[in-house]
Amino acid sequence: MNGLVIYDGPSQWDDIPIVVIVTGISRPSSNPKTGPMLQAWILMRDIHPHEAVVSGADESICGHCTHRRDEEGNRTCYVSMNAPGAVWKTYRAGKYRSVSPREAGSMIARRSLRIGAYGDPAMAPIDVWRQLIRRCSGTTGYTHQWREMPVEYREFCMASVETEEEAAEAMSLGYRTFRCISKEETLLDKEILCPASEEAGKLTTCDRCGLCGGSMSERTNRIPTIAITIHGSGAKHFKSETLRKGKEAHYSLPMVEQVTDRQVLSKDW
């Protein structure tokens, strides 16, 4: 069996049912960028990934991610629906075993895990991830919901950002950042190109690099943050300044004020 269902429950965003599935158990991923990492997928439980994208139901697994499909049908997310769709169909066919996160954590001990091959890790309870990754050799993870969700996700997630202002704000919360940039943009101080990216010369793979492992240590300021040139089939839409400003409007000041009170309660969340 190549996959495990480690969470079947409500989305932390809107309480709609989602599942978290870890694949690569018996057959390692063939993704040339990530290397043979295990892959964790956050999917709608009852809706095919493509249908969720078109209908907007993917908000339950992606929150207010700026790369979701907009009203004009443009989508800048680099993930095509082929792989998530295949995983979802296999799950619906009952071909994945359901186990607790703790049991799964023992089964994947000493292996590396990509937290969020599709979907946002913050949509699943933080204790699910803590139990799952407790014995992993390394992890990578990213969240666009660094404003809305408890700040503790910074333990194992980078803050996904698109602008210098967002990067500064996320860093003020203790996050390290992963910033999507256009080819024309320059790097910030303490920011490096993703070493596994094409523009950096594919110097390594994600499983070997490990720089996208969240806060990583208390010495966060000594560890570089990461940038990557927008890529994938939706990259052409990222170049539109009008579209980009529209997507950034998701992150308005009222949203920041709304999450402040929630972060105070994050230890009991």
Explain the overall architecture:
The chain has a ten-stranded mixed sheet, with helices on both faces. The protein has helices at residues 49-55, 59-62, 82-92, 101-107, 126-133, 164-172, 206-209, 235-238, 241-248, 253-264, and strands spanning 3-10, 17-23, 38-44, 97-98, 112-118, 138-143, 158-161, 177-181, 191-193, 225-229. It has one domain (3-252). It contains ten helices and ten strands. The longest helix has 12 residues, at 253-264. Helices cover 28% and strands 20% of the residues. It is an alpha/beta fold and 269 residues long. Helix 4 packs parallel to helix 5 (126-133). Strand 7, helix 6 (164-172) and strand 8 form a beta-alpha-beta unit.
Overall average pLDDT: 86
How many strand elements? 10
The main pleated sheet reads as: 10 strands, mixed
| Tally of distinct domains | 1
Query: In order across it, which strands form the biggest sheet?
Result: 4-1-2-3-5-6-7-8-10-9
**What coarse outline follows from CA principal-axis ratios?**
globular
Quick description:
The protein is α/β, with parallel strands linked by helices and 269 residues long. It has helices at residues 49-55, 59-62, 82-92, 101-107, 126-133, 164-172, 206-209, 235-238, 241-248, 253-264; strands at residues 3-10, 17-23, 38-44, 97-98, 112-118, 138-143, 158-161, 177-181, 191-193, 225-229. Strands 4-1-2-3-5-6-7-8-10-9 form a ten-stranded mixed beta sheet, sandwiched between helices.
Any key phrases for this structure?
about 270 residues; alpha/beta; ten-stranded mixed sheet; 10 helices; about 30% helix; globular; disordered C terminus
